[in-house]
Amino acid sequence: MKITFTPQLRADVLSLSLDGDVLTVNGTAYDFGPLAEGGTLPREAVGCPVLASDVTREGGHIILTLILPHGSDAPKEARFPQPITVTQTGPIPLPVTYAEEASE
Amino acid sequence: MAITPPPTPPNTGNPAQLEERADAFFGWFPTFVADYNGDLPLLRGKTYATRGGTANAITLNTGGVALATGMQVRWRASAANTGPVTINVDGQGAIEARTITNVALPAGYIRTDADTVATFDGTRWIVDRQIENGINANGAFQRTADGTLLCWGFGTSGTSADTPATFPAVFMASNAASEIMVTLGINSTTTAFGMATRFTAMTNTGLSFAAFRTDTQALISVRVTFIAVGRWY
Fold first, then answer.
1. CA distance B27 to A45
2. pLDDT tier for residue A98 given thresholds of 50, 70 and 90
3. Gap between the Cα atoms of B219 and B208, Å rounded
4. Is B80's Cβ below 8 Å from some Cβ in A?
5. Which pLDDT tens digit goes with each residue over B45-88?
6. What is the rounded average pLDDT for all residues in chain B?
7. Across chain A, what does the average pLDDT equal?
8. Which strand (E) or helix (H) includes residue B39?
9. How many CA atoms lie within 13 A of A103 on its CB side?
């Protein structure tokens, strides 16, 4: 799965995990298995609030763009995120997007 | 409140009134301490309070012993708030914080990259906020304490379909078409034909845009700029 991130200043957070063609976004699973090679699934049909593109399958890869929420203090890696290709099952590591709460 | 002036100090040159004036002078000190402590909250607002607590249940210590209407506290947060906030200053009790527009604090109102100043209005802490500017891969944004959000940026239009664009910051809008105002422009030196832009599918997170030749209505690839104005809370 090839994921492009489009950054946005907002208060929520993003968590992703992958299992085959099933992408779980903030706890909700989206199964792109039925999407055929060369096919396009319109963004509106997916109903994912952080999906920012249509979903396609090219060269066997599911390709999509997700909004990457970040805070006002986010580092450059979150403001200008790089696309990733994910093949392994499990949680998908994301850039640090908020300052960690420091102990007092 | 002004500090109560001291009585005439005792003076060995006036032994007849030495004890009487000494009693009065030393008796004035508790009044001085009370006066000083009463003004202390108003004197400490320009210094940093020692912060503690959590992102949404903030505790601050200024060294004061009471709250006073009009007093201010200043601190640098270690984490942005994630929702409504209470502030407990000098152990005087957790009190609700409000924005300068008198609503509960939205997530991200308190920042870690700028000082926060709160003023006690006698009932609540009114929290002010520095103007926030930032950039990311989708453009630039400015958020102000009154809830106004300004986003601007650009993208390249496509020749086969409308091009999706994500706002650099999310708007708060239950009806994006009515609550977010957008202006598009075309950055091009072309003089061979007229050009026009449009946007569609606008939500609180973005829109799709396109540019056309005005003579053939064909989609063209040009740099399209946008300015969007709305509210972030």
1. 80
2. confident
3. 13
4. yes
5. 667 899 999 999 999 999 888 899 999 999 999 999 999 999 99
6. 94
7. 92
8. helix B18-43
9. 0
Edge-to-edge order in the sheet of strand B195-200 = B163-166, B206-213, B195-200
Distance CA A80, CA B141 (A): 14
Contact B80 A100 (CB under 8 A): no
Which chain B residue has its CA at the smallest distance from A53's CA?
B164
Nearest to B179 by CA among B170, B189, B191, B192: B170
> Which ranges of B84-210 would DSSP assign to H, the alpha helix?
176-179
Q: What is the distance of C-alpha B220 from the center of its chain?
A: 41
- In the block, tokens 């832009």 appear at B197
**Are the Cβ atoms of A9 and B136 closer than 8 angstroms?**
yes
Q: Which of A7, A53, A79 is closest, CB to CB, to B164?
A: A53
Mean pLDDT of B24-36: 92
Q: Count CB atoms within 10 A of the CB of residue A28.
A: 10
Chain A interface test: which of B82, B130, B138, B144 (most A C-beta within 10 Å): B138
Q: Are B136 and A100 inside 8 Å of each other by CB? A: no
CA distance B137 to B232: 19
- Residue B31 CA to residue A35 CA, distance in Å, equals 81
Complex-level ipTM: 0.89
Task: Please check the confidence at residue A25 and state whether its pLDDT lies above 90.
Answer: yes
